[in-house]
Amino acid sequence: MTRFLPEEPLPPYAYTPGRNPHPVRDKDGHSFSLHLPAPPAPDPGRWQDSHDYLRGIDLFNAGYYWEAHEAWEGLWNACGRTGATARFLQALIALAAAGVKLRQGNAFGTTAHARRADWLLEDLVREAGTRSMGLDMLALQQEARDIPERKAAPEPAVLSFELRPE
Questions:
Q1: Partners of residue 135 on adjacent β-strands
Q2: pTM for this one?
Q3: What pLDDT, in 10s, does the model give residues 73-113?
Q4: Which fold has domain 48-149?
């Protein structure tokens, strides 16, 4: 796995609801006392400069789906939850949520989040073209469509693809 921020350690566990302490709310959570400032909105043309975007990719690729979701949600909020970049981040958040549901063995939730990502990406491709923040949205859309085909398995169930912006 290629890491974009190799100097940043990964959390001691990938949070799965019902299996681990909640990272933020539980005193035993891996991020319980961590208070990070809100990130700035990313510049899609300079995605390489967005620490939180790259952190989300590293987390996602390592199977830390809930944590990736949290990293990208901060960026989505920083974008004001509107516009093409915000919708692209929503698609990534939906893919991460599909990963969480896959890990939980929840086929319905996995499929619902994967379809949401597919729909968001489909709209974005029509509106903004095939690339966003270094990623090929057509390839990402195909990965989203393939997620429901994967059988839910006990941990360490992971999605069968990595995000590789270039």
A1: 132
A2: 0.93
A3: 999 999 999 999 999 999 999 999 999 999 888 989 999 99
A4: Hyaluronidase domain-like (1.10.3450)
